[in-house]
Predict the 3D structure of the following.
Amino acid sequence: MKKRISLGALFAVLGVLALVAAGCGGSSKNSSSGGGGGGGGVTALPASSCNAVEYKGSGKPDYLIASDLPLIGGSRQQTVQMNSAIAYVLDQQNWKAGKYKIAFQPCNDASAQLAKWDPTKCSANAHAYAGDSSLIGVIGTFNSGCAAIIIPVLNQAPGGGLQLLSPANTYGCLTEHCSATEPSKYYPSGKRNYARVAPSDPNQGAVDAAFLKSKGVKSVYILNDKEAYGLGVARNFRGAATAAGMKILGFDAYDPKAANYQALFTKIKATNPDAVFIGGLIDENSGQLIND
């Protein structure tokens, strides 16, 4: 059984991959592959949640990295691009980090039943990752709620913990002090094994409020999609907007499954706001919301 390692070169590459995954939609003609069942030098993660191992280097790979993203539902268009970006960067690096040969395996944390991330899948994936001694890091998650489930499991993985790097999580309490239990409850070993390259909800809310103020907005109506991200960033924006002197004319949730939002916007129009702020994911019926 390989001992879990902590090599600067490997984690530096993981950081680059996460950055590129957050901002790149391109793919290389050489980045998709069929590594088959595990590439020989690594142990493949369960096929029930993960696609085939990808590897285009020479010889057998030394270590494996994985991605944990929702590959079913409205987020799929973005997450497929993220996986393409990861494979693209690995291809540019000849599937190596320093002297080590690296394979990649994309994993899914969504279920067909929910059509988005599923807590049961997140938990099962986390335990599979922790039990794979050839895995040295995971790029993910897309949703903060899933990260909250996975981080503590990887934090206690045999061999000293397992790195998780997210291109998308925004829930502030994953890394920032929120209460007596957050974020400490995510790191039972006492050591941090998680980082992200996306700004947290408090930072997003503050920047959004400053931007609207710079445009002369004095009153705003706030909507959210009831999801962890949408509600979180809406609450943080409300606090920042209030501190900036803006008048909050309403704070409501909208139903992502509604056929239309004409009645909602008729109600909002009556308050005569300078702007409407929407906290939500693009796949939560945002097209219909913006159209209405």
